Amino acid sequence: MNNFTFLTDEQIFGNNQLDIISRYGTKCAITDFSILLGGYVSSDYYTSEGNTRKDRTGWWWTKSSDGDNDARSSNGVRGTSGIKEILYGEYPQTIVDENYSRELERVYNNGSLKTTGKNYTTDSVSYQDTDTSFKARTHTEYEYNGGKYIRFVGDSNCEGEVLSDGRTIESGNAYWVRVEPIIWLVDERANIALCKKIIFSGVQFNNLRDYKGDFEKTDIGRFMNTIFAKEIITDRVYSQTTSVEQTQNLEGKEPVRKQNPYGFNFDGVSEEDIIRGAVESNVSVFLHGRSSEGKSARVKQLDPDCEIIYMRNATPDSLNGKSVYNAATGEMIDVPPTWYSKVKEKCEAEPDKIHIIFFDELTNALPSIQGMAFNIVLDGEVNGKWKLPENARIVAAGNDLNDSLAANQMAEPLFNRFAHVYIHTTVDSWLKWASTPKEKYERLDYKEEEPEAKIHPSIYAYIAYKSYSGHDILRTPYTGDKPNADPRKWEMASKLLYKTKQPEMLRALIGEDLTRDFTAFASRKVISVEDVINHNYSNRDLEMDVSQKFATAVGLSSVDDEHFEIVRDFMKQIGAEPRAAFESMWTHGDERRLERLAELQMADSLSQGGIRR
Question: Nearest Cα to 174, choosing from 197, 149, 198?
C-alpha cells in the first residue's frame, strides 16, 4: 500500500460501482482529528454501522473534477457488513476522554511526558485563507502508559464543532487525540483498500485553473504520497482481526495494544547508534576497523574529553599501577595509574556525565597487557584495588589480524566481554560526518559543544564531486613508497589548508597526482556558501557550463542547517539537475534532513495558492 489516491465518481456512484462501495455504502465516518483540522461533520447522517457520535459522517473528495473541486457529500445508501478489514499504519484519530485528557495535560505541563520522536504534519493555513499555499504544521507524538497521543490546540477552523465525546471545541483549549491503527476496507476484486474513515482534512485539493484529472499532480495527491504515506508507517504489527480496543488500561481506560508489549522500536540503527546504546547501557564496546576508519573520532563524538590509553605502549605499571616503598614509614604504598586518577577526578567533578576510558590499539598490546585489560573490563576495577566510577564506561578499538602485522588475537574471554562494532567508512558516511558541525552531535551529557568546522569546504566539495562523477578518492591504494589518501589523511589535509591556505602542501599527505587534480578543481571559479549567504555574486557568475554547475552544487552542499534554505533557493537559479544533486548530497540519508527537505518540496508543490480546501 504505497500509492494513495481518491476514488472517481464512477467507482462510487456509477454503473460499475466498486463491490466494496455497494456492500458498505458511501457514508464515511469522520475522526475527531479531522474535525479538529476543520473537516465538516454532519449532525444528521450516520454510517451503516451505528448512530453514535463516532458514526457521524463527513464530506470527502473524489478525484473526478466536478466543476469547482469541492468535496462530495457522503450521504448515500447503506451497505452490508462482512467486508474484510485490515489494519495498516497509525494516525491520530479519536479524542481522549476529558478525565484522561486532564491527566495527560498535567504530565505534559510538568515536562515529564515522553516524546516518541515521531511527528505528524498537517496544513496550518486557515480554511478561509484560499490565497495562501501549504504551510506545514507538525504535531508531536507522545507516549504515556502504553498509548500514543498528540496535543491539539483548538482554533477558529474547528471552533463550535462537537467531538465524539460530546465536548464542543473552543479556541485556545488543548485537546488530546489518541494515535490508532488505520482501518482499511479491502476490495479483493479491484485489488484496493479503502480507508474506512476520514482521518485528515484541511489540505487544499488543487488550483482550479490547473486540474485536468491528473490527480497524482494535485496538491492533495502530493501531500498524501510525500508526507502522509511516510508518517503513517509504524513499528507495530497488527493482525486482520485485531480490535483497537481489545484491551484496556485499567487506570486510564485507554487502549493498550498487545502486539508490541515491550515498547520496542524496530527501526534500523547505525554504527554510531550501537556505540551510543552500548555505552549508555554500561556495556563495553569494541570497535573493529582498518587504520584511519575513524574509530577514535566516533568515541570523541560521544566524549571529547575521553581518557585515551594507547595499549600498544602500555606497561604493567602504566595500566595497573604500582607499589612504591615509603622510606619514612617502611611500608609499601599502592599508587594507582595516572589514567585512573584522571578518570576519577573527571567523574567526581561531573557526576551526571558519562566519561569514556578508551583502550586504543588493544589488539596491538602484548597478551599479558590484554590480560590486565580483561580484568578491568570484567570486574570494573583496576588491579583488584581501585573501583571504576559509576559514570565511567569502557570502549576499546583495534585492528584485526588481516589489517595489521602488529595485531595480536584477543583471547576468547576478553573478546566475549565486548559488544563488537565493525567500522567501514564510506564516501557517503564520511561526507555526512564532514558536513555536520560538532554541536549537532548529541553528547552523552546532552550538552552542545562550541561550533567547529570539521573539514575544509574545498576538500568536501572535491570528494563529493569525484564521487558524484563515479570516482572514489576517499581512499587510494597504499604502495609503501608514496603517500596515499584515506579518511584520516583528508582530515589532516583539511587542517593544513585551514592553516596555510596552500594546496600544494597536500602532496606530502595524499601524493602528487591527487594533489595536482585537487588543485585544478579548487582553482575553478565557483560560488561559495559564504558568497550565497552574503549575495556576493552577479548574473554573469551564474553563466556556467555543466561541470561548473555540478561543481557549484557539491561545493554548496556543505552548507549547515541554518543556511540551507537560502542556498537551496539560490540553486533554483542554477538548474533542476544540479539542484537535485545538491539536495541529495546535503541530505546524505539523514532522516531529519530528508524530512525537512520533503516539507520544503511539498511547500514548493503547493505554492500556487487560490485553492479550495
Answer: 149
Strands 192-195 and 307-310: unpaired
228/201 Cα distance (integer angstroms): 12
102 pLDDT higher than 80:
yes
CB neighbour list of residue 146: distance below 8 Å, 6 or more residues apart:
249, 254, 256, 257, 263
Determine the Cα–Cα distance for residues 599 and 121; give it in Å rounded to an integer. Answer: 9
Q: Give SS3 for 332.
A: strand
Strand bridging mode 331-335 / 386-387:
unpaired
Q: What stretch of H or E contains 359? A: strand 355-360
**Grid cell in block for residue 565:** 534554505
- The answer to whether the CB of 335 falls within 8 A of the CB of 396 is no
Better pLDDT: 48 or 334: 334
- Rg (alpha carbons) of the chain, rounded to whole number: 31
CB 425 within 8 A of CB 287: no
- What pLDDT sits at residue 589? 62
Judged by DSSP in three states, 524 sits in coil
Determine the average pLDDT of the residues in 87-100: 90
User: For the whole model, what pTM was predicted?
Assistant: 0.49
Per the CB < 8 A criterion, the answer to whether 272 and 436 are in contact is no
Closest CA to 394 of 413, 414, 367, 408: 414
Residues 381 and 542: their CA atoms lie apart, in Å, by 64
When mean pLDDT is compared across 65-74, 187-196, 466-475, 513-522, the lowest value belongs to 65-74
How many beta carbons lie within 10 A of that of residue 524, not counting itself? Answer: 14
Using CA atoms, how far apart are residues 324 and 332, in angstroms rounded to an integer?
Answer: 5
How many Cα atoms occupy the beta-carbon half-sphere of 124 within 13 Å? 11
User: Between residues 581 and 194, which one has the greater pLDDT?
Assistant: 194
Cα gap 61→221, rounded to integer Å: 11
pLDDT digits (tens, 9 = 90+) for 105-155: 988 888 888 888 889 999 887 766 666 777 788 899 999 888 899 999 998
Cα–Cα distance for residue pair 130/203, rounded to 1 Å: 11
Would strands 41-46 and 192-195 be described as parallel, antiparallel, or unpaired?
unpaired
Q: How far is CA 441 from CA 183, 300, 427, 446, in A?
A: 39, 10, 19, 9
Give the residue from 409, 315, 309, 301 showing the smallest Cα distance to 361: 309
pLDDT category at 328 given cuts 50, 70, 90 is confident
Q: Which helix (H) or strand (E) holds 396?
A: strand 392-398
